[in-house]
Structure formats: C-alpha cells, structure tokens
Amino acid sequence: MTTGTVKKQNKVLEVLKRMSRNKLAMAGLVIFTAEILLAVLAPVIAPYGFAEMDYTAMQTGPSAAHWFGTDEMGRDILSRLLYGSRYSLSVGLIAILLNTALGMVIGAAAGFFGGWVDNLIMRFLDVIQSLPAMLLTIVISAVLGPGYFNTILALSINGIPGKARMLRAQILKERNAEYIEASESINCSRFRTIFRHLIPNCFSPLIVQSTMGVATIITTMAGLSFIGLGVQPPTPEWGAMLSGSRQFIRNSPYMVIFPGLAIAVTVLALNLLGDGLRDALDPKLKR
C-alpha cells in the first residue's frame, strides 16, 4: 500500500470520525440509508404489488389491511410508496452523478487552461444560468418528452453550471501549487494532472453540494411529475402520486399526506447529511 493511499484512507477516517459527532448528520445518514434499503427490498417487503387493485377497498383510509390506505383504484398506498422510492431515489442519485461528472470536466477545463477556453465556457454557462432553473427543466422535459431517462437528462443539465463554477474556483486556487509544478516538471500529461492531482484536491465542496443537490432534484422531479412531464402513471413515483391524488385532498387527505411526507423526510435527511458533511470537511473545524 502506497503512502498516498494510506494518507487518503486516514483523511476519510478523520472526516467520518468528525461527522460521527454530529447527531443530526448521523440521523440523516441513517434515514437515507434506510430509504435506500427499503427501495431495494420493495418487491420483498411490499404487502401488495404497486398496480394490484382491491375493488372492495377503493379509497379507504388507513387500516390493518392497508396501513396507509388505498387510492381511488384500490391500490395500496404503502406498496406504491415503497416501489415509488426506487424511481424517486434512483433519479436523484443518477442525475446528481451525471451533472457532477459533467460539471467536473467542464469546470476543470475552464480552471486549468484559462484564457479563451475559460472565457468561452463561462459565457456559455452564463447563458444557461440566465434562465430560471425550473423553466429550463420544464422546457427540456417538454422537448425530450416524459419518461424515466428523459427526466434524468432534464434534471441533470440544470446543475452543471453551479458545479462547474465551484470546481473552477477551486482549481484556480490550486493550479499554481507546488504539487502541480512538480507534476509538470516530470512531464505529467495535462489529463493526468487534472484528473489525478487537481480534481481530488478540489473535490470536497462538490461532495457537500452534490449531497444537498439530490434533495433538490427529488423535489424538482416531484414538481415535473405533478404537472405531467416526469415519470408517467401508473409508475408509482412520489410526485406522480401527489398529482393523481390532489383532486381527493378534501375527502381523502391521507392520499396526499403520505407521498408528501415521503418527499419531506427524504429532503430533510439529505439536508442534515449535507450540513454534517460540510462541517466535517471544513478545515477550520479540525481539532
């Protein structure tokens, strides 16, 4: 095991140790981990199929047979929430990985090369950021059409400028560091210098932003599904469930409450986790 690998492992352990002292952050981590496990195990633990209808119990409140009640078609809401977590969480995680990867490449190129490359990239990002975020997502979704993968693409594009700008700012601070000069002195390629040395040393702020970005993407996805541009029925996505049950909010409020709580708890857990990561990665808080 190389010295560099040992140092990285020690740094990760140090961050985890500091984060473990933050009870709210650990609560967020436990909740989000539990939601991922529930999503993975949904076919096993869900009491009914997400499209299974019980015509004798249509639009009934919570009961022993249906803990969260049933919708207007007699489908079990708890089962649909469990299956829906697979779509909501996977879209959030895949979209954040995609826009983080693209933002890293674009931001690294702008910060490292500078000059006309930096100016061209920044002006292009200015154009994207000049548009309201939700409006841009709606336009892209409308052009691509509704659906699972199209929704991921629409949600990914929105977060690229912010991550690119953040990484660019970090790289501008680091590109004249001694370790970069050392890598250039031994004829290290630009590609290796950027991806092997620069990005790993500038990645910490992106981790925090990406963690909180998952929460933003989940709420945005729910908004798209609510207006009919996200994942389409009968797929049990949380936003689509809210959209389908809004007309029953007065007579059967539980149909709106449970999907809304699922979104709220997930967003809260991710925000708590993001705050904890930010504090753990802040060098000023090291002890």
Could you characterize what this model shows?
This protein has helices at 3-20, 23-40, 42-45, 77-113, 115-129, 133-144, 148-174, 178-185, 190-202, 204-226, 238-245, 254-281. The protein has one domain (22-43, 75-280): Orthogonal Bundle (MetI-like fold), CATH 1.10.3720.10. With 287 residues, the protein is mainly α.
Features:
74% helix; 12 helices; mainly alpha; 287 residues; disordered N terminus; elongated
CATH architecture: Orthogonal Bundle
List the domain count as a whole number: 1
Just give the CATH class. Answer: Mainly Alpha
Relative helix content: over 70%
Order of helices and strands: HHHHHHHHHHHH
How many H/I helical runs? Answer: 12
Alpha-beta content class: mainly alpha
Q: Shape, please? A: elongated
- Major sheet size, sense and barrel closure: none
Write the layout of secondary structure elements.
Layout (H helix, E strand, L loop, with lengths): L2 H18 L2 H18 L1 H4 L31 H37 L1 H15 L3 H12 L3 H27 L3 H8 L4 H13 L1 H23 L11 H8 L8 H28 L6
Task: Quickly describe the structure.
74% of the residues lie in helices and 0% in strands. The protein is mainly alpha-helical and 287 residues long. Residues 1-6 have low confidence and may be disordered.
